[in-house]
C-alpha cells in the first residue's frame, strides 16, 4: 500500500508499504529518518516517541496506515533548542539510544508545563526507559531546560 | 621530562561535552541498527524452541521457495571453524546435530524485507527429538572450580553465622538491540559494521568461522546502544557475514527485543552458601563459602566469572582463614557470561548479607562491624595478593553513613510504595536503612596479556596544531571518546583533538569491559602522546613542550609548535600494557591475579508497604574511590547508572527460566527500573591516587553495580525483619 503523511513539515509518500509495518518502520527504513529508535517495538521503552498530530506516541505501536494524512514530527524535526542543550550540558546522554525519545517527551512536557516539579517530571517520563544513566542526569537536564 | 599542561582547556579533570552528544540529541547518530546500504538484504535467525534436542533433519525447501528469499544457510554452509568462544571454543555458529539451549541459532535467512526473512525462517522445518534438559547446575558438567584457601581450614570462632543466598539471572537489557551490517568486499572478504565491546576479538572469531585470514575481515564500530557485558560474545557477526558472502549483497541484521534476550549471555544465577566466624569483639576469624554458578549451555566467559567470585568472595575485609570454592557448571539453561560486576555481584550479595547477620549476632551496627574488619592499603587478599594501592574501605563507609538522612516521605502517592497505582496513603509503610560495600578487580586478570593500542598524530590543519587519536576501543556510552580527547589535550597541550572511529585498521584496544578502558586505552593514548612529544622534541632539539612553544634544557624557546610541525605531521603508535598479573594456583587460589582493586559503598533508604510487599527506594547514597576523576561528570554518570542496575537486581530484574525455557523475554515482563523506580542518588567521589595507574585513576564502571543490591536488600530487611536470602525480592517474600 501507499502511505502519505506530513513528516517534519514536508509531504512524504511511502510506497510498497506492507500492512504489518509500523510508523516507526516506515520512518526508519522507508523515509530515511532513523532518529526514532527501536529498543522494544512493544510500546514499553519510549525510544520511538514521535509527535502524531501534536501528541507524543510510541511510533512502534502506530500501524503505518494509521498515519495516512496525518502530521508526524520526529526528533530530527525538532528545532535544536533548550531541551537538547540541556541534555548535553547535564550529562544526560550516555549511549544515547533513549535520547531521541526522551528529547521528544521532554519537549512535550515543557510545552505543557514549563515549571515541572520532580514528581511531575518522573510521571511524564515514566514511559521512557534509560539503561545507562540511572535517570538522575535526565532529571537535571529537564530542570535545566525548564529554568 | 614531561610536564603536563594542566591549563589546557577541556583536559583531564574537566567535563567537556561529549563529541558524539550533539548527533545523539538530534537523532542523527548512526547506531548499528540504523545502517543502510543500497541493495541490502535483511537477515533473520531461526532459533531452537527447545532447551535440549537432537536435530534429526532440516528441510529448507519451503523457506527457499518464498519469493524474496535469497539464502537459507545451516551449519553445513559455515566454511571455516564451526564453533567459536571467548575462552573455550564450544559454541556452534549454527547448531550441529543438537541444540543445547532454547534460542540457540539453527539456521539463518537473507531476504529483501525483514518480515519475509522472519517468515522464511518460520518455514524451515526442523525435525527435533526433544531430550530432557539439565537445568540444575549441580547436576551438570563442571566447567571450572576455583578454590581459594588460606590459613587454617579448621579455624573455629565464638560467633558463627551461616546463610544460603540466591541470585536470579539478570539481563544487561541494553536498549540498542544486537545489530549490524555486513558488506561483501571485492577481495573476497567482508566489511562489518557492528556494535560490540571488542572489535579485534570479534574479528578473530569471525575470520576463523568464515575461513578467511584476519586481514580480510575488517570491522568498524557502529553506534553502540549500551553494552554492560552483553556484547562481549558474538551475536549476529558471523551470521550476517556468512549471508553477505553467500548472496554477494550487503546484509543487515537487527534483533527484536525478544530475540535479544536469546541473542546474548546473562548474569550467572548463583547459589551461595556462607559461614562466617568472628571473635566476640567482632574480628573476622574465618569465612567458608561454596558458590555455585549456572553457566548455561556454553562457556562464554564463565571461567573468569568463577575466578572473580572466588578471589573477591570474602569482600573488602581482612580474613585470616578462608576456605572458598566457586564452581560453574554447564546446563541447558541460557548461556551466562559477562555482565557489569562479573562474578563480584553475586558474591557481594552473599558476603554483605552475612556481615549484617554478623553485626546482629554481635550486637554491633552494620557499619561498625564492616569498619572493624575493613581492609586497608597493605592488606592481603585471600589469594595472598597484597593490596598495594589505597583501599579506603572504612572511609567510604564513613562517608555514606555521615550523609544526612533523607526526609520522611511526603504523602504524595507518587513518592510512596506502589507509586501512581495509589495503593497506600502511608498506612503500613515502614522505613529501613541498609549499607553495603563491595570490591572489584579492574581490567583482565590471571596473567592475561591485557593491552591497548593507540595511534596519535599531531599535525597542522589550516595552520593550527591538531591531534587525531585513533584506537579500536569501543565507545559504548561510557564516554571513552571524550576521555581519549581529554588525555590528548592534557599531554600535548593542543585543544583541537579528534577521535577517529574505532576500527580494526589500528591494533587491538582490548575489551570495553572490566572497568578497564580509561585505564588501559587511556594509558595507551597517554603513552602515544608522550611518544609524539618525544619525536617532535627530537626534531628540533627541544627539551620540553610548553604550551605552543618548544624550549631547550635551559628554558629558551627553540621553536614554535607550528614551526616544528611545518616539516610534516608526527605520528606514533604505541601498544601499552598495565603491569602483569599472574595465574592463580589451581589448588589454593594463591597468586597475584588482579591489576587493581576498586571500591564503592552504598547506603540505601527504603519505604516498604509491609502489607503489600511493595518497596519504594527513597534514596541511595554512594561513595566511591575513583583514584582520579578524569571526567567528573561521566564518573558520576557511571556511578548513578551502575547503582540503578543494582537496584534492578535487588527488586525486579530476573530472566525467569522454567525447565530451560525463558518465560519473560520482553520489556513487558522483564522489568528494568524506570524513572519512577530510581530515587535521588547522592554521590561522593574520592580521589585517592593509585600509584600504579595512569594519573592514579581507578576503573569506575562496575563497583557501583556491586554493592547497591545488598544495600537495598539490607534496607528492606531492616524495614520488615524478613530474612530475604534471594534477589530479586518479590512482594511475596515480604508478605509471607
Ligand atoms: S520501540 Fe516503541 S516503545 Fe519501545
Ligand atoms: S543513555 Fe543509554 S539508554 Fe539512556
From TrEMBL, chain A:
GO MF terms, alphabetically ordered: 2 iron, 2 sulfur cluster binding; metal ion binding; oxidoreductase activity
Sequence ranges assigned to domain 2Fe-2S ferredoxin-type in this UniProt record: 1-78
Keyword terms of this UniProt record: 2Fe-2S, Iron, Iron-sulfur, Metal-binding, Oxidoreductase
Pfam families: Fer2, Fer2_2
SUPFAM superfamilies tied to this protein: 2Fe-2S ferredoxin-like (SSF54292), CO dehydrogenase ISP C-domain like (SSF47741)
UniProt-listed PROSITE patterns: 2FE2S_FER_1 (PS00197), 2FE2S_FER_2 (PS51085)
Signal peptide: none
Protein name, UniProt field: Carbon-monoxide dehydrogenase small subunit
Origin species: Phytohabitans suffuscus
Automatic annotation (TrEMBL), chain B:
Annotated Gene3D superfamilies: Aldehyde oxidase/xanthine dehydrogenase, a/b hammerhead, Aldehyde oxidase/xanthine dehydrogenase, molybdopterin binding domain
Renumbered residue ranges of the record's region Disordered: 404-424
GO MF term (any one): oxidoreductase activity
SMART domains in the cross-refs: Ald_Xan_dh_C
InterPro entries in alphabetical order: Ald_Oxase/Xan_DH_a/b, Ald_Oxase/Xan_DH_a/b_sf, Ald_Oxase/xanthine_DH-like, AldOxase/xan_DH_MoCoBD1, AldOxase/xan_DH_MoCoBD2, AldOxase/xan_DH_Mopterin-bd_sf, Xanthine_dehydrogenase_dsu
Pfam families noted in UniProt: Ald_Xan_dh_C, MoCoBD_1, MoCoBD_2
Record domain Aldehyde oxidase/xanthine dehydrogenase a/b hammerhead: where: 26-132
Lineage top rank: taxon: Bacteria
PANTHER family for the chain: XANTHINE DEHYDROGENASE, XANTHINE DEHYDROGENASE SUBUNIT D-RELATED
Protein's name according to its UniProt entry: Carbon-monoxide dehydrogenase large subunit
Gene source species: Phytohabitans suffuscus
Amino acid at each position: 500500500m501507499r502511505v502519505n503523511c506530513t513528516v517534519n513539515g514536508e509531504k512524504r509518500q511511502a510506497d510498497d508499504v506492507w500492512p504489518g509495518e509500523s510508523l516507526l518502520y516506515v520512518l526508519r527504513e522507508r523515509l530515511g529518518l532513523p532518529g526514532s529508535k527501536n529498543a522494544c517495538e512493544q510500546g514499553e521503552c519510549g525510544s520511538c516517541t514521535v509527535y502524531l498530530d501534536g501528541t507524543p506516541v510510541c511510533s512502534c505501536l502506530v500501524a503505518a496506515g494509521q498515519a495516512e494524512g496525518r502530521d508526524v514530527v520526529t526528533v530530527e524535526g525538532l528545532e535544536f533548542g533548550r531541551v537538547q542543550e540541556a541534555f548535553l550540558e547535564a550529562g544526560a546522554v550516555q549511549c544515547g539510544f533513549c535520547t531521541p525519545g526522551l528529547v521528544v517527551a521532554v519537549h512535550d512536557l515543557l510545552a505543557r508545563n514549563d515549571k515541572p516539579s520532580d514528581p511531575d517530571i518522573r510521571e511524564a517520563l515514566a514511559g521512557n526507559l534509560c539503561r545507562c544513566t540511572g535517570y538522575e542526569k535526565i532529571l537535571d537536564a529537564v530542570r535545566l531546560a525548564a529554568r | 621530562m614531561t610536564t603536563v599542561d594542566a591549563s589546557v582547556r577541556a583536559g583531564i579533570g574537566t567535563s567537556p561535552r561529549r563529541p558524539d552528544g550533539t548527533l545523539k540529541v538530534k537523532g542523527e547518530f548512526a547506531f548499528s541498527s540504523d545502517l543502510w546500504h543500497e541493495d541490502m538484504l535483511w537477515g533473520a535467525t531461526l532459533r531452537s524452541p527447545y532447551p535440549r534436542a537432537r536435530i534429526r533433519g532440516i528441510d529448507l525447501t519451503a523457506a527457499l521457495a518464498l519469493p524474496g528469499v535469497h539464502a537459507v544457510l545451516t551449519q553445513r554452509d559455515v566454511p571455516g571453524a564451526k564453533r567459536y568462544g571467548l575462552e573455550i571454543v564450544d559454541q556452534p555458529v549454527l547448531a550441529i546435530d543438537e541444540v543445547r539451549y532454547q534460542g540457540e541459532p539453527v539456521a539463518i535467512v537473507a531476504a529483501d524485507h525483514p518480515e519475509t526473512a522472519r517468515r522464511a525462517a518460520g518455514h524451515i522445518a526442523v525435525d527435533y527429538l526433544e531430550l530432557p534438559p539439565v537445568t540444575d547446575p549441580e547436576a551438570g558438567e563442571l566447567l571450572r572450580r576455583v578454590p581459594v584457601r588460606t590459613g587454617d581450614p579448621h579455624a573455629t570462632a565464638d560467633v558463627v553465622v551461616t546463610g544460603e543466598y540466591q541470585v536470579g539471572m539478570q539481563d544487561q537489557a541494553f536498549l540498542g538491540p544486537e545489530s549490524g551490517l555486513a558488506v561483501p568486499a571485492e577481495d573476497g572478504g567482508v566489511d562489518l559494521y557492528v556494535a560490540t565491546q571488542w572489535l579485534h576479538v570479534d574479528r578473530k572469531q569471525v575470520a576463523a568461522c568464515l575461513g578467511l585470514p584476519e586481514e580480510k575481515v575488517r570491522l568498524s564500530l557502529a553506534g553502540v546502544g549500551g553494552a554492560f557485558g552483553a556484547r562481549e560474545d558474538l551475536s549476529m557477526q558471523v551470521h550476517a557475514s556468512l549471508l553477505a558472502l553467500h548472496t554477494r549483497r550487503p546484509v543487515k541484521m537487527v534483533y527484536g527485543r525478544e530475540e535479544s534476550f536469546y541473542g546474548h549471555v546473562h548474569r550467572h544465577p548463583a547459589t551461595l552458601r556462607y559461614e562466617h566466624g568472628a571473635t566476640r569483639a567482632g574480628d573476622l576469624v574465618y569465612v567458608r563459602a561454596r558458590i555455585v554458578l549456572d553457566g548455561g549451555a556454553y562457556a562464554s566467559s564463565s571461567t573468569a566469572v568463577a575466578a572473580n567470585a572466588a578471589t573477591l568472595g570474602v569482600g573488602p575485609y581482612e580474613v585470616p582463614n578462608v576456605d572458598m570454592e566457586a564452581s560453574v557448571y554447564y546446563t541447558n539453561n541460557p548461556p551466562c557470561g559477562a555482565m557489569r560486576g562479573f562474578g563480584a555481584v553475586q558474591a557481594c550479595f552473599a558476603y554483605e548479607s552475612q556481615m549484617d547477620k554478623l553485626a546482629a549476632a554481635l550486637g554491633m551496627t552494620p557499619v561498625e562491624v564492616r569498619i572493624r574488619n575493613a581492609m586497608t592499603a597493605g592488606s592481603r587478599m585471600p589469594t595472598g595478593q597484597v593490596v598495594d594501592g589505597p583501599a579506603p574501605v572504612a572511609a567510604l563507609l564513613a562517608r555514606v553513613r555521615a550523609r544526612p538522612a533523607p526526609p520522611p516521605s511526603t504523602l504524595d502517592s507518587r513518592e510512596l510504595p506502589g507509586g501512581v497505582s495509589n495503593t497506600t496513603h502511608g498506612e503500613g509503610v515502614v522505613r529501613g536503612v541498609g549499607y553495603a560495600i563491595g570490591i572489584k578487580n579492574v581490567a583482565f586478570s590471571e596473567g592475561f596479556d591485557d593491552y591497548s593500542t593507540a595511534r596519535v598524530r599531531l599535525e597542522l590543519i589550516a595552520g593550527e596544531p591538531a591531534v587525531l587519536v585513533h584506537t579500536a576501543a569501543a565507545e559504548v556510552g561510557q564516554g571513552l571518546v571524550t576521555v581519549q580527547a581529554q588525555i590528548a589535550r592534557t599531554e600535548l597541550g593542543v585543544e583541537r583533538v579528534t577521535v577517529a572511529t574505532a576500527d580494526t585498521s589500528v591494533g587491538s584496544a582490548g575489551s570495553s569491559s572490566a572497568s578497564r578502558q580509561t585505564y588501559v586505552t587511556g594509558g595507551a593514548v597517554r603513552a602515544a602522546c608522550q611518544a609524539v612529544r618525544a619525536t617532535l622534541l627530537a626534531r628540533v632539539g627541544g627539551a620540553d613542550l610548553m604550551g605552543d612553544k618548544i624550549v631547550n634544557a635551559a628554558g629558551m624557546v627553540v621553536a614554535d609548535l607550528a614551526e616544528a610541525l611545518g616539516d610534516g605531521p608526527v605520528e606514533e603508535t604505541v601498544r601499552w600494557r598495565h603491569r602483569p598479573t599472574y595465574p592463580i594456583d589451581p589448588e589454593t587460589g594463591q597468586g597475584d591475579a588482579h591489576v587493581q582493586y576498586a571500591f564503592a559503598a552504598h547506603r540505601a533508604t527504603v519505604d516498604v508497604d509491609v502489607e503489600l510487599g511493595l518497596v519504594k527506594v527513597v534514596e541511595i547514597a554512594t561513595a566511591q574511590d575513583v583514584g582520579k576523576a578524569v571526567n567528573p561528570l561521566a564518573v558520576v554518570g557511571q556511578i548513578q547508572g551502575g547503582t540503578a542496575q543494582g537496584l534492578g537486581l535487588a527488586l525486579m530484574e530476573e530472566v525467569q527460566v522454567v525447565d530451560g525455557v525463558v518465560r519473560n523475554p520482553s520489556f513487558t515482563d522483564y522489568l528494568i527500573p524506570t524513572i519512577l523506580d530510581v530515587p535521588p542518588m547522592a554521590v561522593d567521589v574520592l580521589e585517592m591516587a593509585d600509584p600504579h595507574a595512569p594519573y592514579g585513576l581507578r576503573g569506575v564502571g562496575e563497583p557501583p553495580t556491586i554493592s547497591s543490591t545488598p544495600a537495598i536488600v539490607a534496607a528492606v530487611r531492616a524495614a520488615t525483619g524478613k530474612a530475604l536470602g534471594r534477589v530479586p525480592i518479590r512482594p511475596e517474600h515480604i508478605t509471607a
